[in-house]
Structure formats: C-alpha cells, structure tokens
Amino acid sequence: MKTTCLSLLAGAMALALAAPSSAVAQGGLGNPTVTPIAWTGQKLHPFTFVKFSNPSITNNGLVVFRVMVERKGQQVVKGLPLERILRRGMAVPGIPNTVFLLFSDPVVTDENDVTHHGMSGGTDRIAFIGVFGGTGVNSSNNMAIFSDRTGTWAPVARKGGAAWGGTPGQNLGANWGRFLSVAADGNVVAFTALLAPGAGVDASNDLGFWMSDIVGGIPSNRLVFREGSTVNVNGPRVVKNFQVLRANSLGRGQGFGLTQARALLRVTFVDRTQALLWVSADGTITTLTQTGITDVPGYQAGSKMKTFGVPSFSRTGYPAFRSGLFNGTGSVNSANNEAIVSGHADTLQTLAIRSASAPGVAGAVFKKFGDPVMNEWGDVLFASRIVGGGATRLTDSGLWLNTWGTSQLFFREGDAAPSIAGTTMRGFPSAAITVYYVPFEYYQEPGMTQPLNGTDNGMMFYEGSPMVIVEGLLNRVGGVTTRNDNAVWATNWYGEKVLLIREGVTQFTVAGRVRTVKSFKVINPVLLSPTQKHSYNNLGEIVAAVSFTDRTHAVIKFKMPAPEYGHVR
C-alpha cells in the first residue's frame, strides 16, 4: 500500500515512558492486577497530561506512549524516576537549526527479547517518525525516522535524503519521498518508503524496504528489497509488488513484523506467481515457500498452491498463512480450494481445510478463512466462517486455536460471552497471540536446579498456555447497546478467558476516583507501525489507552497472574 496519513500525527502529542502508580488488584485466582500508569491531570513539571496515544510495553515492563499536554509542546519521558527525553520545540538531534513539531506513535523493543528458553533484559530501544521545522526545511524534507539505537537519539533516514543502495557505496540516485511504515527489533530499524519520482524511478519501482543495523557499533544501512528488482526464486523473477510490516485483518497490532534482524515478505512477481521470503539485514534472501508447490498436505498428490494471504510468523521463521489452491490439481476443487497452512516449502503442515469439519461445532464445516496470527512457539489463531451444524448468520463465525497441530474452537458467534451474564458474542474485530513465560526462580521446587524445559543460565522461564487477547463485540440484545457492546478478554496461565475491560461498564480507580470506561484501545495497531508488537509482552502484561465517561483519560496496565506454587509445568 502506497499511502500514509500524516494528518493523524497532528495535535500537541508526545512520547512518554512512565512509571506505574500503585497497583489496584481486581482479586480472584486467575484475574489480573490493574495498574494506572498515567492519567489526565497527572503532572510532570511544568506539564500536565491530558490524553494518550496507543501505548506500547517491552518485556522489561517499560511503557511508552505519546501524550497531549496542557501547555504547548510534546514530550518524551522515560524511566524511574521520570526523565524528560524529547518534547515539541526541542532541537532535532543530528539536523542543525531545526526543532521537533510532531511525533508518530513510537515503537519499542527489547534488545534481548524473551525467546523460547530465553531471558528478558537488555536495552529497550525506541523508534519513531518525527516532523520538524527550521532553517532549510520544507515539505520535501521535513520528516525523518529517529532511534536511540546508537545510545543517543539520531536520525536513521530523512525524507528528501539520498536513498541507500543495495550494496555498500552504491546509491539509488533517488530521494525518499514518504515513509510508510517503521519497525524495530534489537539494533535493527526497518522501514518501507516511497522514492521520489525521477532518476529512473516510476510507479513500477518506487517502493523499497530498508534495514538499518548496527554492526560493531557502526550503523550499516541497506536497501534489502525493491519493486522492479529481479529475485532468484526457482529461477529469476521480477518483483511486481510486495507487502512487509503489514498486519492482516484479524491481527491488527500482532507481532512480529521484524525479528532477529529478519523480516517476512509476501511478494507478487510479474509472472503472477507469489512467494514468502525471509529478508535479512545483510541482504540475504531466503525462499520459505512459493506458489506452484505441489503435494500440499491434506490433499491428494499433485495439488498446488495458487495464492498467499498476509502471513504471520514466529521468531524461528516458521510462518502461518492462508493459501488458495489451483482447482483441478490433486483433489482440489471449488469446495475445498482454501486452507490454513504453516511451515516451509519442505515442512508444510495444513492446519485447516475449507469444507473440512470445524472442531467444536458438530456437523459444521469451514467455509471461508481469514488470515491467521502466530506466536513465537508456533501456536496459530485463525478466524473462519462455517456452514452446517445449525449455523445461522448469527452463529456462523468463530476463532480457532491450533496448538501442537491440533485445532480447537476458541470463540464462536452466538455463544455466551465469558463473565458477562446474559450476553452473547457477535464478532471479533481483532486478536493477538503471544507466549506466556513464568520466571523459574519464583517457582523453583526443592531440589530442582533448573526448569525441565530450559538450561542453567539462571534466567529460565516456565511455559504456560499461550496468552490470547481477543477484542469481541456483543449482540445488541438484553441491554447491550452501541455504548457497551465492545469488550476485551485475555487468557491467563491456565488458559481461562478473563474479561479485561468493557465499554460503558468496567470501572477503574484512577487517582483516587472511580471512573467508568467509555472507550478503549488495546490491540489497535500503532500508526505507521501496524505489525509492531506493542500492547502486550511475554510476561502476561497488557496495556490499554482508556477514555472515561467523565472525559478524562488514562493508560492502564493489566498483569495476568502467575500460577500458584506447585502448579507450574
């Protein structure tokens, strides 16, 4: 997609990394602890907070967000105690005689993210797109991507600047026109941008994907993919278009768009074939799978994949995606020509097939799939419509969770809404899935020197059930209206669905006052960073931007409880 919406950057907004206030426990086994992080009227001298953007949280538990303040200006605040980093009107680092005017929502990451059998820690990195003004600045060069990846704030790339080439010393001979998306992981900042017309640039080759890495403390900037280029995918093929750092319709705000200095691209070539490619910061391109692959599991020999949806992937590069298949190949026909697939070309697994039985709904079969989302372990969540088994237009869609290759019904339209008596489910606008680790040292049993599933580096984690976060709509009957029909649930360590927040009903005590929720943003995508994991981490923490009926606002953190002693596994 070659559009962006800078109007959403307008307003006196700021980034903030804020310290939590005292927790307010909801109570009950499996229920989360609720902590107001920041709220309307809170002061950071001489500024008073008013309203907040979509917050992000790292695996170290730090929260970052933009905040509108009463006094003119924008701020960036970080740490314990609060430390002012940047604000509107401050000098722009690395660009003399300029000052910041606007900020995009930031993206954050842990340099040492929590991985399978891994640890948390490292340095929390921030990246954002900033708009600025000053000497020599105009609409053609007034924007840049900034990051603290070098230890200090510095521009990564500037609109109107010369675009980096594909090899050291080579330049494209064109300027960046617009930045479309940005993501960060460890020391890597990745982004897509449109090139300015001219110098051999036209609509067929003006979209590129860049990665800015740090090797030995020295930034290494590289064009890693571009429209119109030739790629060897079972022979040379010319790129027509590609999608990267893009969220699918179900997983708005679902990570990962970038992981371990690699990104997953869905590429369409001029010969109408498609491929899923790993692209690394060093320019290495690896084909994961491509259309035309034969003998898809679950079908007879000779079946071939035709198209791919928007993929999701784990840290190991194990993707999950929706695939259309060619009618007439193997056992493929118009009734079963769509599937949810995971894996590489030589390790494909079919998780669900159109017209196959839908687990959890007797007599029903899958009719139409949405694009899936996947976590670090390879657990997959997907949406589908169903037909048969008594399904009606009010009960014909649901979410299925696939773990260890087995799918089970997770949510279904028409079913009773968990923890909301007398209400039923109507739809699922968004969902995300992540892992859920519990620190080993908190639950070490007598005589145990290391967890059963880890090593002995002293920072081990038990694996609980995957944490699934679902935004759901309620049917507008039984007192449900447009003012209270939206809610969010998350699974705890035991896999139980726990209600986090509901419009018009949920109340929080913030700054000594009980306030009723009017609206909220939990797993909404970050502007210009749609696939950056941001509103949740791997330790059972979730953050939300909340508006209350008294016209105040807050950033709220939910902490899902760890299991009781003796219940870890």
Q: Could you tell me the mean pLDDT?
A: 82
Structural class: mainly beta
**Count of individual beta strands:** 45
Q: Strands of the biggest beta sheet: in what spatial order? A: 2-3-45-44-43-42
Unreliable runs: 1-28, 111-121, 451-460
Radius of gyration: 24 Å
Label the overall shape: globular
Largest sheet: 6 strands, antiparallel
Strand residue content: over 45%
Oligomer description: single chain
- Binned, the helix content reads under 10%
The CA-CA distance between the termini, in Å, is 44 Å
Number of helices: 0
Description:
The chain is mainly beta and 569 residues long. The chain contains no helices and 45 strands. A six-stranded antiparallel beta sheet has the order 2-3-45-44-43-42, with no helix packed on it. Strand 2 and strand 3 (33-39) form a beta hairpin. The two termini are 44 Å apart.
